[in-house]
UniProtKB/TrEMBL annotation:
It comes from Streptomyces malaysiense. GO terms for biological process: protein maturation. Signal peptide: none annotated. Residues 1-25 are annotated as: Disordered. CDD domains: HypE. InterPro entries: HypE, PurM-like_C_dom, PurM-like_C_sf, PurM-like_N, PurM-like_N_sf. This is Hydrogenase expression/formation protein HypE. Residues 194-340 form the PurM-like C-terminal domain. Residues 71-182 form the PurM-like N-terminal domain. Belongs to the HypE family.
Amino acid sequence: MADLAAPGLAPAGTDTSDTAVDPAGWTCPAPLRDQPVVVMGHGGGGALSAELIEQVFAPAYGNPLLAALTDSAVFDLGGARIAFSTDSYVVRPLFFPGGCLGDLAVNGTVNDLAMSGARPAFLSTAFVLEEGVELSVVGRIARAVGAAARAADVTVATGDTKVVESGHGDGVYVTTAGVGLVPEGVDIRPRRARPGDAVIVSGPIGQHGVAVMSVREGLEFGVEITSDTAPLAGLVAAMLEVTKDLHVLRDPTRGGLGTALNEIARASGTGVLLRDRAVPVPEEVENACGFLGLDPLYVANEGRLVAFVPPEHAEAVLAAMRAHPQGTGAARIGECVADHPGMVVVATGLGGTRVVDLPLGEQLPRIC
């Protein structure tokens, strides 16, 4: 088993009275809000990420499209409603059970577009390569990009390549941007969540983050856990065939389902009540998270979505999701409520409740 102790920390029971502990040596140090430099938590999708955007980027760019802070910007252009999104992928390792950097880069941007109800159409790719990386590795990732684009029915229309000196990168980074068309009558955004909405997740959670961590740390859990990375535009199209009045869609990537629900609750000023036993967590993921000290609600997913659906359409939408290959494990896990606005609360099987707060940083860095 891999040694999970953080560098700079002594084993339990060790006398550390004369030992200086250097937090800078930790693999993923607990980020502090008054940090004068960037820390790993700034990229984790939690409170630190939100502060970075709100305090640095939003004031610098200053426009209403960015202020919406949705997965993709939606705007009118030449009489059409366009969705536009971009994302960078720095996953380590480059290859993991169920996928690799290449298909992750395609599916992630395709899914960001789909969360606005858009039909993704075109992508760009930008590769940053580190000097010394094997061309066979680059070729394998490029082929994965092509295969994933074909599977998602999108065209990689343009791209760019840069090379940095050895030691100034981590093999391969990929940035993708994408555009798609939003059908008339579709208005999907976090602020549309309403009390009474059914909260539905498209399948089991936590698989991607645990799959990446298992390879990175050389851990074995008795069964291989594979990433759920997949394009979700087809699933969203099937949901929209039932009703165009879907209130919110979000793919719970960095920070997992817990973070996505907190962002929706805060944007809409409503509360979210989950039923603990209704949230689908595979047994192998639950066991792995228990071993690693992780909460599955905060573990990243790359082929799942959470939907806020008006109650009168909930059962029909759930049935349509379960009939689609990417939604066979869909489950209704709770509802949007007027109580505790801006908060996510879980009703436990023992009759109690617990708050699912927005995490400060992230449990697992470099998982997308």
